[in-house]
Design goal:
Layout: E1 5-9, H1 13-25, E2 29-33, H2 36-45, E3 51-55, H3 63-73, E4 78-83, H4 88-96, E5 101-104, H5 109-142
Parallel strand pairs: 1-2, 1-3, 3-4, 4-5
Length: 143
Amino acid sequence: MIVAKALLVDDEIPFVETMTKRLNKRDFSISSAFSGVDALKLLEENSEVEVVILDVKMPGMDGIETLKIIKQRFPLVEVIMLTGHGTIESAIEGMKLGAFDYLVKPCDMEQLVAKVSEAAMKKRKHNEKIIEAQLKDIALRRI
């Protein structure tokens, strides 16, 4: 059974390849992108992504700018910010923009697995509430 469907976004190709393999072995379904622009394209194409694991420092569109756009276009997708350059300022900014959490690379695999699982559960619960509200609305219209 798939634990979570996630998109890993980082410009460091070896990091992405290693983390993708490690997370796939733990029953996560991981897609990958090497830039913010590519991540947004993948999200447009794949509505099943529950969680984005997003590096803050990337050339071109950085993680903060990518986070802003993700939250505008895909508000239910949870985002975990990841960086090798942990600063309080970027952590605070990411959280203010709606990031689920913030981890510093190299992050502990168990911690990452736990955070991605928590974020996926949050998204699923939110989806369930939306469906319940829609069903109630349909039922009320029939009365």
